[in-house]
Write a structure and sequence with these properties.
Helices cover about 55% and strands about 10% of the residues. By secondary structure, it is of the alpha/beta class. The chain has three domains: about 120 residues; about 130 residues, Rossmann fold, CATH 3.40.50.300; about 90 residues, no CATH class. The strands form three sheets. The chain has a four-stranded antiparallel β-sheet with strand order 6-7-9-8. A hairpin with a 2-residue loop joins strand 6 and strand 7. The longest helix has about 55 residues.
């Protein structure tokens, strides 16, 4: 997984499986070479050495990839903090060089040291925050709202209590609460207010990406629209990217710019919101869209559910599927035969 061009984690099972495949292929080649009757003993020895050498080279490459993956995962925060410190240096170097007098230089030097130290404690996860599904379980009942929201700032190393308090009040107002709520406990709020506290906790660190894991599914229907509108407003005001996870496709269409449909943990279709609803291509996407109820009794009587059966829909015994672009920005998980069919379908429009 990459965030802003930096790898933050990587699975290593693929590399381990490749090592097993290389070793199995080595064993079969060695057995075939030793069993060959058309080679002399010297030729067999030379061929076996060559097979082992080639296999060892490939295994070494895979092990190097494993070590690099582990290193990136373990040190992503250190790498990010180092980059942030470099940015601070680039910012202050021309300012310090251009200081007109000693007093100005000392002031800038003090600010530089403070920001440099603060940047050294920065973590890449500060730029990625999460809004949880259950607003009750995600808030510590023994902490006040102020303590809950400011916890990220404290962990990051901010010690100025007045500044922390000011930031807490600012985000409370930003999510539609008032400063008086800061001294209360989670059990004193409704479900919608608790979710607003969870949103405030996520945005106080000024993230660039927020993962919203079904943030409205545990809320009353009358509150869901308020929370969705709040997230929409924050997205535009703060320039956030929100990864919105939900099952309610009508809400997803209203909220999202791009939609990825997943089936058993794999993305099967990816497109803009309007494109996906106008031209659904994958059978599972069609099945999901056919399940959306509308407040129209006449339409509901005519509505036909589409049932998705992977075994009946696909034949991947020969041609394996992969993500293919059928239109600019519209990707479908399909094999070549299905891809040609999708292109023909779109061409008829």
């Amino acid at each position: 997984m990459y965030f802003k061009g930096q790898r933050i984690c990587a699975g290593i099972n693929t590399y381990k499986e490749e090592i097993k495949r290389i070793n199995a292929h080595r064993d079969s080649q060695l057995a075939e070479t030793k069993a060959s009757t058309g080679l002399t003993a010297l030729q067999k020895k030379h061929n076996c050495e060559q097979i082992n050498q080639n296999a060892d080279t490939l295994v070494a490459e895979q092990r190097k990839l494993i070590e690099q993956a582990k290193y990136d995962h373990k040190n992503c925060n250190k790498i990010y903090a180092f980059k942030q410190q470099q940015l601070v240096e680039q910012k202050y170097k021309p300012l310090l060089d251009g200081a007109s007098n000693q007093e100005e230089y000392d002031k800038l030097k003090k600010e530089y040291k403070k920001e440099y130290k603060f940047a050294g404690k920065d973590r890449i996860m500060n730029k990625m925050q999460m809004i949880f599904q259950d607003p009750i379980a995600s808030l510590d009942p023994r902490m006040t709202v102020k303590e809950i929201i400011s916890e990220g700032l404290v962990i990051r190393g901010l010690k100025d209590k007045k500044l922390i308090e000011q930031k807490v009040y600012e985000v409370l107002e930003l999510v539609g609460l008032v400063p008086e709520h800061a001294g209360r406990y989670p059990h004193e709020f409704s479900g919608g207010q608790r979710q607003r506290i969870g949103i405030a906790r996520a945005i106080i660190l000024e993230p660039e990406l927020i993962i919203a894991d079904e943030p409205i599914s545990a809320l009353d229907v009358s509150i869901q629209a308020q929370v969705i509108n709040l997230l929409n407003e924050l997205r535009q005001r703060l320039g956030l990217t929100i990864l919105f996870i939900a099952h309610d496709l009508s809400v997803v269409k209203y909220f999202s710019d791009r939609i990825a449909v997943m089936y058993f943990g794999k993305i099967v279709e990816l497109a803009t919101s309007d494109e996906l609803f106008a031209n659904p291509l994958h059978p599972y996407t069609k099945s999901l869209l056919s399940a959306i109820p509308l407040p129209d009794p006449h339409f509901e009587k005519q509505r036909k559910r589409i049932v998705y059966n992977p075994l009946a829909e696909h034949d991947y015994s020969v041609d394996q599927p992969q993500m293919r672009e059928v239109r600019p920005g519209h990707f479908v998980y399909c094999n070549q035969a299905e891809f040609d069919k999708h292109l023909a379908t779109l061409a008829q429009e």
